[in-house]
Amino acid sequence: MERQEHYMRLAIEEAKKAEAIGEVPIGCVIVKGDEVIATGYNHRETDQQATAHAELIAIEEACRKLGNWRLEGCELYVTLEPCPMCAGAIMLSRIEHVIFGAVDPKGGCCGTLMNLVQDDRFNHVSELTSGILEKECGEMLTTFFRELRAKKKARKRAMGCIAPDETV
């Protein structure tokens, strides 16, 4: 557990990089043995790219570093449960173990809505661990979206779209 918390803290640091540039704070690290071989954080808004998720960025970097599309023996740590796209990439890249922080009730595909990485109909199944530093990971996202909503509300008020005492 201590090892998993260490690497999840590194993923949280990646998520903070995303938050610093106005991105949804999701971070990812990929570990092989005891070495971090790749990192990533969301770039969707920055790059205007639907696929610029933390996991995909880290998977691409890990493949380059290892010179192989197969990431066997690797662990992927991510602050939020992977979406269908990322879960598919995890499965296709043959990552051995997926460890995530907060569950995603609206898009999680590592156990919440479905479990793509452990569906034995595919030719690869990953080990799965959830809830590592879940509170910290979840609070970071909750705070980000609360502040985003407050900024949007303030802009609407400034433009006169809503009355000062009206709620949105």
Automatic annotation (TrEMBL):
Protein name: tRNA-specific adenosine deaminase
Domain of life: Bacteria
Active-site residue list: E55
Limits of the CMP/dCMP-type deaminase domain: 2-120
Cofactor section: Zn(2+)
Annotated NCBIfam families: PRK10860.1 (NF008113)
HAMAP family tied to this protein: tRNA_aden_deaminase
Organism name: Exiguobacterium indicum
UniProt xrefs under Pfam families: dCMP_cyt_deam_1 (PF00383)
Subunit structure: Homodimer.
Recorded family membership: Belongs to the cytidine and deoxycytidylate deaminase family. ADAT2 subfamily.
Listed CDD domains: nucleoside_deaminase
